[in-house]
Known about the structure:
Structural class: alpha+beta
Helix content: 25-40%
Distance between the termini: 107 Å
Number of helices: 6
Amino acid sequence: MPTMDEMKNxxxxxxxxxxxxxxxxxxxxxAPKPKASGGKMAMIIVxxxxxxxxxxxxxxxxxxxxxxxGPGAGRTELPAVPVVAMPVVQKDVPIYLNGIATVQxxxxxxxxxxxxxxxxxxxxxxxxxxxxxxxxxxxxxxxFNAALQQAIAKKAQDEAQLANGRIDLxxxxxxxxxxxxxxxxxxxxxxxxxxxxxxVNADQAAIDSAKVQLxxxxxxxxxxxxxxxxxxxxxxxxxxxxxxxxxVITQLKPISVVFILPEQTLGSIQQQTQGAHPDLAxxxxxxxxxxxxxxxxxxxxxxxIDPTSAQIKLKATFPNTDLRLWPGQxxxxxxxxxxxKGCVVVPDSVIQRGPQGAFAFVIKNDQTVExxxxxxxxxxxxxxxxxxDIIENGLQAGERVVxxxxxxxxxxxxxxxxxxxxxxxxxxxxxxxxxxxxNRSKGKD
Length: 445
C-alpha cells in the first residue's frame, strides 16, 4: 500500500507524455473554452436562408393577390388617384384672328385762328364735350368790323357814281340820234358806266371778304367731340400762321381701332367680306386679355401690304358709348373670321403629348382611365383659341376626360373625381344628374 509521501509525489508529477517544462493549468478550474467560429458561421447561414425565404414568400403573396379575383382582391389594389374631370362638349366655335391694335379718334381737329388778333374770350373748359357750332373762343372783332364798314361805304360811293354815269349815258343816247353828240362821246360814256359797274361789284366782294374776316373772329367747334388741354390763354395775340392752335378736339363717339394682321390672313378675310355677311365683327380686348372693351365692325382694309413686315392694316369702327376706348390706347383686336358649327371641344389641359402623338385620358364607367389617341384640328394663323381645342376625331360629346391630375395616370388606373379645389366630388360619373345620388353624396359630406 503506497504511503502518503508516494501519493503526494504522484499527484505533483506530470504525466509521462507531458513535458516537464509545460505550464500547469490555471488554478480554480478555469479550463480553456473551445473556439466558436464554426457555430457562428452556421448561425449566419441560417439567418440568410430565413431572410431569402421570407422575401420569396412575400413576393409570391403579392403576385397571388394581384391576380386574385373575388371580394378580397380590392385589399391589395393601389388607392384611386384624385383627378378633375370634365365632359366633352359639342358646340359652335368662333374663330378669331388676333392682332395688335391702336385706338384712334374717329375725327381729330386742331382748332387754329384764321385771322390775326387778340383773344378776348375763351368759351370752353378743358375736357368739355362740344358740338359742331359751339363757341370756343372770341378774337377782338373791332378792327374787322371797321374794315367791313369801310368796304360798305366804298360801295355806296361807287354806286352813286354808277347811277350818275347811267343818267349821262341815257342823255347821250338821245343826243347822238339828233347829232348833238358824236358817237365817240357816247361810246366813252358807255365804257365809263361799265367801269363803274365793275367797281361796284369789286366793292361787294370786298364787303363779303370783310364779313368773312369778321366771322373768323368767332371760333366755333367744327365737329362733335371732346376738347383737350387749352393751348392759348385769354388776352394773347394769335396769328393765322400759328401752328400750335387753340385746342385739339377729338371725336370719341364713334371711335376707330387700327390693327395689323399677317398677310396670309388676307385671302380668308376677303372671302368672308364678299359673302353673305360682309360686316365682320371685331372685338377690342385689353392688353392683359381679361376685359372686353367694345365690339365694332370692320370698316376698311388697307389698299397695300407693308413689304417690310408682311402685314396688312385694317380699321374697325366702334360705337364707344361707354368711352372705354381712348385715342392712343394699345389693345388687342379680335376679328371674328367665321364660326365652325358643331365642333367637339375640350380644354387645352386635356391634350397630352407622347411618342405616338396627342392623346387624352378618358374616364370609363368602372372609374378607370383609358389612354385615347386623338387628332387636334389645325390652327389658323394668329388664331385665338380662348383656352380650348377642337378635336377632329378620337372623342365624342358626353365622354368624361381628365382635366387635371394626369401625371399619376396610366392605362387602367383607377381614379376618383375631385373638384377644382382638390376635394373629392363623392359621386361617380353615372350619378351626375341623378337627384337621389346627389342627395346621398350630400348626406355623406
